[in-house]
């Protein structure tokens, strides 16, 4: 045999990769919805990423995987509507194939089905669920193979991967499989008897019952949110210190990140708290975040400075900017610091609060990668672009603390809702067409603050955008790499902006704090609508902080599991939770 003949008979690497990945999807080794990372697939298949990439393109054309910008491809998923529609189509195709097969090839079909049900019986007896599900697929395929209609057989083949993947995901109960086996055995007996009418009736009933079981199990799985765990703050901070040290972070970075995350989690802002720690740890270990940055000031004048974060964690860069802004304000009455080459910094209120704790009025702004549509828009444009302000209210008084995203909700609210299995508030998120949705799994972008007056929220986002970019030279939101991306090696280069004002340089600190107290007390004492409550900025957070100081912080189970895996990988003491 010559070389040309050998080449013709050898499948291309991309075809081998495609077939291998397809087999893993059908067998359930790659479950529905699982991410398909090129590097991991290439390693497992023993080839480069190029044929894997080509294979994924082919599998997308087949409908076996889905792709989204800046995200790894994923194995297809099925909604309840998809499952119902597939069940209806199966019923039409399989009853017709069964009728034709009995009429044309009853004896060979009966022989084949008896052989398969015998193997299914053995698999079930040994509780070999994997083999049982594969044999279930073989049973139904045998009917199409004997129906004598090649187009009907090809149509079933096109759908079979979805049917089998659904079996792998949802057929988990041994009792259901026992009932399924009895129906398959009865069906094989009816084929042997040549009873087309009874066989069709049983097939139709079998498919309907199976579809209803799939729907019931899927509904139960999606409707069962997992309650968050509770962790005491001291333990959470201990673990975060250990974990970041294991990730190579220097002491200033660890202190800054712990301070920022504790601010958020202790006050109930869970979207920006310790649930982000797994994401940050991945950034430190894979290169997105510099674990030991050289933060430096490129320019400085009497009341302004420009900071280069050296791709630091956002907390490390922004707390350094806060210290500089406070020093500038004490020297000249006001201080402003623009930040570039930074990254996600958590809750903006942490930095305004840090300024307020120094006895000054503080502001903090930042932009982030596009995830918020414009008013009336149908594409991602702004980031969530928060605005925060905090000021002292006098001795033994909590500061005034205001912190808001200019989107209807922060993006991390979507992630938290996905993790907890709860719906989003109405009119806060949109699908790819700009239509509002409440299912967090369907959210492609956020709505701007303001509902039908969302142009106001979009305008506020523009303030954060300009302050964070035009004064620092940082990229605009739509120019930034995504926060949620499989590329955790590339720094993002975010901008931010902090301002500090010294009340002593104006009417005086005493007048300032007295005004804040009078204003806050007036808000708290104002009349409330029936069944409603009026609160001043920060009231909800300070009250939650008191509860959490006693009961512990909350942390969603997805984050707990990720931190448990990190601790095991790095050999550090695990995070101790106190319950849920």
From TrEMBL:
Key words, A-Z: DNA-binding, Oxidoreductase, Transcription, Transcription regulation
InterPro entries attached here?
A: GntR_C, Mal/L-sulf/L-lact_DH-like_ah, Mal/L-sulf/L-lact_DH-like_NADP, Mal/L-sulfo/L-lacto_DH-like_sf, Malate/L-lactate_DH-like, TF_FadR/GntR_C, Tscrpt_reg_HTH_GntR, WH-like_DNA-bd_sf
Q: Where is the HTH gntR-type domain?
A: 11-78
Q: Which domain of life is it from?
A: Bacteria
Recorded GO terms, molecular function?
DNA binding; DNA-binding transcription factor activity; oxidoreductase activity
Tell me if DNA-binding is a UniProt keyword of this record. Answer: yes
- Which PROSITE patterns does the record match to this protein? HTH_GNTR
Checking Pfam families in the record gives: FCD, GntR, Ldh_2
Q: Which SUPFAM superfamilies match?
A: GntR ligand-binding domain-like (SSF48008), L-sulfolactate dehydrogenase-like (SSF89733), Winged helix' DNA-binding domain (SSF46785)
Keyword Metal-binding listed: no
Signal peptide from the UniProt entry: none
Family, as annotated: Belongs to the LDH2/MDH2 oxidoreductase family.
Matching PANTHER family: MALATE DEHYDROGENASE, OXIDOREDUCTASE-RELATED
From the Swiss-Prot or TrEMBL record, give the protein name: Transcriptional regulator, GntR family
